[in-house]
Amino acid sequence: MRILLAEDDPSIADGICASLRRGGHAVDHVANGNLADAALRDHGYDLLVLDLGLPGLDGSEVLRRLRGRGAGMPVLVVTARDGLPERVRVLDLGADDYLVKPFALSEFEARVRALLRRISSQGVPELQLGRLRLDLPGHRAWIDDSTLELTAREFGLLEALALRADRVTSRTQLIEALCDWDQELTDNGLDIAIHRLRRKLQGSGTGVRTIRGLGYLLEETVHSGDAHP
Ligand code: CA
User: pTM score, two decimals?
Assistant: First the structure.
């Protein structure tokens, strides 16, 4: 999943970025409300983690504008401002959840998982394609009952393809899903990830087909026991 983090405290931002990336997510980080507003207009995100006390545009204003544009992505507010009136105000502005600093990273991670579970395939946390099964929030995959060992990038690739299983996914869409501003994914890097994923899917009855000039399609292969080369 691709996540935008708007947080101006460098140590908190570093901790959150590291935690989300360990979880296999692509994270873009901004430390200013105006940059957050611009990033939300320019890119598609699956989740916004929003500090309220931001330089430039206040976090509340970023959230108000986001909801004003009709964007329904989940928003987790993290803030030092506490108190019942503040919580009610922020939830009324359109936040989905609220975490008061300081918080334990384990609780932050659990809340992110809960919010992403809600949006993964319209609330269905598991996807099944033939004998392949994916637990999206848990980042796990199985062929029948055997675990498929995937790196975070391979899982992200499989997830991006599986969420659009009946449609072709372009290389640009895959790179958007897998990459944040701090990480480069070259064409060559994407080819390598696809190659590795195909090898791991061999024998699963599901393969990644190249649609020349358009992109890739995750589909059940005719003969289980082989995958598309
Ligand atoms: Ca702040």
Answer: 0.68
